[in-house]
């Protein structure tokens, strides 16, 4: 058997990798043993969390002060879950987007205690864990659908409002032109019916027609080219 110094570089790497694997396996065994030793207290906490989640999903009222087996962070996470399910936070309505964020925070806080059901020696907890995970997943899907609906409704109302504002602007412009046209027509009708000038304007006078000579009247004699006096017989009617 060769000593370590005689091993090739590749063989040394394989040896180090094997030692790391062994250390990891030993560490995992120690953690499992510690989890088994702490199982009674952990199982009680796990049971309290699962029961509370079920009661909240069923719409029942929960007295969080009685959850003495849980720590403050776990109780706070369950209180957040209560608000997520009810859709209200401090008596105020919350949108689906905010509820989704709060649900993710709740799951992150409760994941360590719920993970107890995944241990190799906790088969009796596996069924309750799957039930809770299914219910919380369904809640998350429901909230995702609500978020999409709220976004569509919000953008739809915004577009509708913008269209209404555009229509109002168009109606105001058309109304002004219509009012002007109606006013002009009304003034014209009034002037035609009662003879009064529209809008206080001075009524224009008709031009006087020039008097035309009778069609059979003889033309006056032309003036004499030798004198400036009018010809005899002119009565000065045109003077």
| Fraction in beta strands | under 5%
In DSSP terms (H or I, runs of 4 or more residues), the helix count works out at 5
Secondary-structure-based class equals: mainly alpha
Q: Order of helices and strands, N to C?
A: HHHEEHH
Question: What coarse outline follows from CA principal-axis ratios?
Answer: flat
What's the β-strand tally?
2
Q: Spans of 5+ residues with little confidence (pLDDT < 50)? A: 185-207, 215-231, 233-239
User: Which sequence of strands runs across the widest sheet?
Assistant: 1-2
Question: Mean pLDDT, nearest integer?
Answer: 74
How would you describe the oligomerization state of the chains in this entry? Answer: single chain
How far apart the termini lie comes to 159 Å
Helix share, percent: 55-70%
Radius of gyration: 51 Å
How does the major sheet shape up? 2 strands, antiparallel
What this model shows, in words?
With 239 residues, this protein is mostly helical. It has a domain of 150 residues. The chain contains 5 helices and 2 strands, in the order αααββαα. The protein has a two-stranded antiparallel sheet with strand order 1-2. Helix 2 runs parallel beside helix 5, helix 3 runs antiparallel to helix 4 and helix 4 runs antiparallel to helix 5. The longest helix has 69 residues. The termini are far apart. The C terminus is likely disordered.
